[in-house]
Design brief:
The chain has 482 residues and is α/β, with parallel strands linked by helices. The protein has 23 helices and 8 strands. The radius of gyration is 34 Å and the shape is elongated.
C-alpha cells in the first residue's frame, strides 16, 4: 500500500527535524540535564512539526540507550513505541473534546508506564476542548505524577485558558523558511527519483506557506497528476492557483483599467477550476512583495526571488499598494463564506479597477471646492472689473494646438469672481475644463505672468454658490492647495 510522503518522511529523531532549532536544542538540553517539565505547550501554524516533535520527545525520553540525544531504535522501549506504543497516548481534541475523555485520562494517570520510564499524553488541537474538559485537565496538571508528561499541541493558543497556559512550558513554533522547505523537498525528490526542476521545488515551497506537511502533500499530489516531468503548470493546476507570469498579466491589466481583458481572465480562471480565495491570497502576497521591492530594494533582492517587473514599481506608490492590499484582504472572508466566490472576486476587481477613478474624482472635487473657497474668501470686485478687459490677451495663443480648445471655452464662458490669484468661470459644461486645470493654469501664467488658480462651475452650481456667498450662510477661509 502506498504511503504518503509526509508520513514516509516524518522525522524519527531530533536531527531529522527541519527548522525549529531553538526548540530542538532546548528539548535536547532538558533531556540531558534531566530537567523535563511535566507539561509542554507546542503552539504554532499547522504542518510545522508540533506533533512530530511531541512523538520524538516521547520516544526519546523512554529510550534506554540514547545515541547523541537520539533514540537507539533497538531497545525494547524504542521497538515497542515504533510499532504499538503503549506509553504514548495520542488524543485528538477536535473529535474527543468532552469531559469524559479527560476524566478517563485522570482515572488512568496514576497507573505506571507499561514498559518505559514515562507515560506521555499528546493532546492535539487542545484548544478544541470544552470548558468542562479544560477544568478536568487543569486538576490533572496541578499535581501530575512524576511518571506522566503532557504535550499539548495547538494552532490557536489564545483560545486556551490562562490557568492551563500558566502550568505549561510553552514553545512557539515558527513557519519554516522557503529555503528550509525547498532543501527537504529536494532530498525527497532525489530519494523518490522524481524529475522536478529547482524552480518547481521553489514554487511548492512558496505555496506551502511555511508548512512542511503541506509542502510534501502538494508534492505528492503533483507526482500523482504529472506524467513524467513535473512543471510549474502542473503545480498550479493541482493547487488551483496561477503562475507568476499570469499574476503579472492580471495585475498589469488591473492597474491599466483594462476591464474587458480582466473579466476574460476571470472567466478562464473559473472554467479552469481556480480557487478564487487562493488567487486573492496570491495577489495580496504579490502586492506585498511590490511594497518590499519599492521600499527595501536591497533586502528584497537578498531575500526574495525577484519576479516583479520594474514597470510595476514605476506605476505604483505606497498608498496605492496599501489600498489594493486592504481591498483584497477585506474580501477574503466574504469569498470563504460565499457559495459563489467568483462573484465576490468580480466585485472586488471592479473596486480595484475603479479605485483610480474614484481617487481622481475625489481629488477633483476637493480641488474644485478649495479653489471656489479661496476665490470667495478673497473676492475683490474691483480686481475683477480691472481684469476683465485683459481677458482677450489669451487670444495670442489661440493658434497653439495645446491651448486652442481651452481658449475657446474661456471666451465662451463668463468670468464671475476673482480673489487675488484665484478665478472662477461659469461654463455650460465644466468637466473637460476642470479635467485639464494644469494646462489652463499654465496658459494663464504664460499670458499674465501670475500663477492663477482657475476653476469652472456650471450655471446651476454658480447660483447656489452666489446665494451662499450673498446670504453669508457659509464661512470662507483660505486653504493652501497641495
Amino acid at each position: 500500500m502506498y504511503q504518503t510522503l509526509y508520513r514516509k518522511y516524518r522525522p524519527s529523531n531530533f536531527d531529522e527535524v527541519v527548522g525549529q532549532k531553538v526548540i530542538i536544542q532546548t528539548l535536547k538540553n532538558a533531556i540531558v540535564g534531566n530537567k523535563l517539565s511535566h507539561a509542554y505547550l507546542f503552539a504554532g501554524p499547522r504542518g510545522t512539526g508540533k506533533t512530530s516533535i511531541a512523538k520524538i520527545l516521547a520516544k526519546t525520553i523512554n529510550c534506554t540507550d540514547l545515541k547523541n540525544y537520539n533514540p537507539c531504535n533497538k531497545c525494547v522501549n524504542c521497538t515497542q513505541n515504533n510499532n504499538n506504543p503503549l506509553d504514548i497516548i495520542e488524543i485528538d481534541a477536535a473529535s474527543n473534546n468532552g469531559v469524559d475523555e479527560i476524566r478517563e485520562i485522570k482515572s488512568k494517570v496514576n497507573l505506571v508506564p507499561s514498559i518505559g520510564k514515562y507515560k506521555v499524553y499528546i493532546i492535539d488541537e487542545v484548544h478544541m476542548l470544552s470548558t468542562g474538559a479544560f477544568n478536568a485537565l487543569l486538576k490533572t496538571l496541578e499535581e501530575p505524577p512524576s511518571h506522566v508528561i503532557f504535550v499539548l499541541a495547538t494552532t490557536d493558543p489564545h483560545k486556551i485558558p490562562a490557568t492551563i497556559l500558566s502550568r505549561c512550558q510553552r514553545f512557539d513554533f515558527k513557519k519554516l523558511t522557503i529555503q528550509e522547505i525547498k532543501t527537504k523537498l529536494s532530498e525527497v525528490a532525489k530519494l523518490e527519483k522524481i524529475d522536478i526542476s529547482d524552480e518547481s521545488l521553489n514554487e511548492i515551497a512558496i505555496l506551502s506557506d511555511g508548512g512542511m506537511r503541506d509542502a510534501l502533500s502538494l508534492l505528492d499530489q503533483v507526482i500523482a497528476y504529472a506524467d513524467k516531468k513535473i512543471t510549474l503548470e502542473d503545480i498550479h493546476e493541482i493547487n488551483g492557483t496561477i503562475a507568476v507570469d499570469e499574476q503579472v498579466s492580471l495585475i498589469e491589466n488591473i492597474i491599466n483599467n483594462n476591464i474587458e481583458e480582466v473579466f476574460k481572465k476571470i472567466n478562464k480562471y473559473y472554467n479552469d477550476g481556480k480557487d478564487f480565495v487562493k488567487l486573492t491570497e496570491e495577489l495580496i502576497l504579490f502586492f506585498r512583495n511590490i511594497l518590499l521591492k519599492l521600499n527595501t530594494p536591497k533586502f528584497y533582492k537578498e531575500n526574495y526571488n525577484d519576479r516583479i517587473p520594474d514597470k510595476f514599481i514605476e506605476k505604483l506608490d505606497n498608498k496605492k499598494i496599501v489600498e489594493y492590499i486592504s481591498e483584497l484582504n477585506s474580501s477574503i472572508n466574504d469569498m470563504k463564506n460565499s457559495n459563489n466566490p467568483r462573484t465576490i472576486f468580480e466585485l472586488l476587481v471592479i473596486k480595484l479597477l475603479n479605485n483610480e477613478d474614484e481617487k481622481v474624482t475625489k481629488l477633483e472635487k476637493n480641488l474644485k471646492e478649495i479653489r471656489i473657497n479661496n476665490t470667495l474668501c478673497n473676492f475683490n470686485k474691483k480686481q475683477m472689473i480691472e481684469f476683465l478687459p485683459s481677458l482677450d490677451k489669451i487670444k495670442q495663443y489661440e493658434n497653439h494646438t495645446k491651448y486652442n480648445d481651452y481658449i475657446k471655452m474661456i471666451l465662451n464662458g463668463k468670468l464671475k469672481a476673482i480673489g487675488k490669484e484665484n478665478i472662477i468661470f461659469v461654463l455650460e459644461e465644466s468637466n473637460e475644463f476642470n479635467d485639464n486645470l494644469n494646462i489652463i493654469d499654465e496658459l494663464f501664467y504664460k499670458v499674465y505672468g501670475v500663477k492663477y488658480h482657475v476653476i469652472s462651475v456650471t450655471n446651476i452650481e454658480w447660483e447656489t454658490i452666489k446665494q451662499e456667498f450673498n446670504s453669508k450662510t457659509k464661512e470662507y477661509k483660505y486653504i493652501e492647495e497641495e
